[in-house]
Amino acid sequence: MTDAKKSKLIHHAHLYSRENEIELRILFESNTYFGRKLSLWASQINLKMFGSFIQTSNENQNDRLEKIDFTNASLLGVTNSTSQYEGDFEYVIIKIDCIKFYWIPSKENINTAEFYLNEYGFKVVKNFYAPLFGIDGGFNISRMNGMDVFYTLENTEFRPEFNFCYSDNKSNSEAKITKEPKIQFRYKDNITETEAIKYADLIRTIASFYFHTPIDYTLSRIHLEKNTITIKKIQKKSALESSGNFLGFKNYWNFHKLMNSNWQKSALDNNDMLIIVVSRFLHAKNVYDTSKFLIYYSIIEYLKAMHDEINSEFSFIGTKKTRNTKCNEAVNLLLEIVPKEEQEEFKIRLDSLKDGLKFRPMKRPLEELLLKNKINLNECSIDLKKLVEIRNSLVHGSPKIINYDELEKANKLLYRITGILILQLIGVNEWELDLNLE
Question: Could you tell me if 359 and 316 are in contact, meaning their C-beta atoms sit under 8 angstroms apart?
Fold first, then answer.
């Protein structure tokens, strides 16, 4: 690419980061029609990939700023108008949903991080604190007894906290204290950016499942040895805010007790699955009837597929050479009962079956997964056969034959089953399946 062509792809831009908005203003010469071209191009790409097309240089507005990264940014909107001018240049406005900054490291904060939660995250933190207490002109908001500990997760420690902000005016009779929920981290050793985000996302996922609410981070500051990383995310409003706990699974723990249990290894091992199934679980809470059923059912099918992939083969003892010798001996024994003129054909047939013999036989669809997880529906008014029937009716376009009273009961049951399966992915075995669907 020539320097002339390359220069046409470079534009001066201003970045505006507000409380719930990230805006880029890209300046261009009017006769290039860059704004229109950008709008047309943006309509033809995957909007979630938008940030991967942006590269920055000369981020010279702050001496501490090293780099700006748009890689994970999705495009929310483009505003192009011939009335948008700055000096001699026209500009196009781009709204995106996240941005990452790399700063010179803050030495006093190295190996710590704070992840600020969205409005739903207030549920995570509120029960860790006592109400505001005042005496003799002094005020204090203290943590509840026994709930000031940091929880351990591999080489990090964390706990839910409030960041307290206050505002006051001597001409006003009221002062204001705002409690901002966050997860505070302390890292025992040098940690990578990827590890820090993985730990934070795992805790966010478990909290979202516990409270049945989409909890996310709005602002993160990760203080590493080489740099400090700030990540800002614009929050999407949930269609319906839900609330919950583990009572539907007959587990009576609060969030503090959950964090104090031995969930870490199992949750880390199942991290990828948890992210997928918890997202579906929350989505199911915000839809109705047939959609709810299909989403819950898809969770069980997904976990079954993962279970099959992991546990599909028999375990064999001995070396490969020993196993081959034993297999040949078994074939020779079988050939003794086959007429000589048919032995060659019989051996070909055995060879075609040999690979399939190493796989475990599958029981009826889904039954093996439920039995493995000690979920028995034999005494339930909605059994596994009925769940499969409802699913087939919905998938194959026969919703008119569905009994909606049965569908409501099936959704209650699937909520409990999927919740229990997720509990076991986290490593929580204290639960009971309630078969009363009335």
Answer: no
Q: Is 80 helix (H, G, I), strand (E, B) or coil?
A: strand
Return the structure tokens found at 62: 């702050």
Max CA distance (Å), the chain: 108
Residues 6+ away with beta carbon under 8 Å from 44: none
What are the sequence ranges of the domains in the chain? 3-99, 105-244, 246-312+362-438, 320-357
Query: The whole model's pTM is what?
Result: 0.82
- Walking along the chain (438 residues) 10 residues at a time, the average pLDDT comes out as 52 87 91 89 90 80 86 91 83 93 93 95 93 76 90 95 89 89 93 95 97 94 95 77 84 96 96 96 89 92 76 70 81 85 76 58 64 83 86 77 87 95 96 90
Structure tokens at 181: 């929920």
Buried-state track 179-202, b at ≥16 Cβ within 10 A, e below 16: bbbbbbbebeeebebebbbbbbbb
Tokens standing for 197?
């985000």
In angstroms, rounded to a whole number, what is the distance separating the alpha carbons of residues 285 and 280? 9
- d(Cα 80, Cα 199) in Å, to the nearest integer? 40
- Say how far residue 235 (Cα) sits from the centre of its chain: 15
256-267: buried (b, 16+ CB within 10 Å) or exposed (e) per residue? Answer: bebbeeebbebb
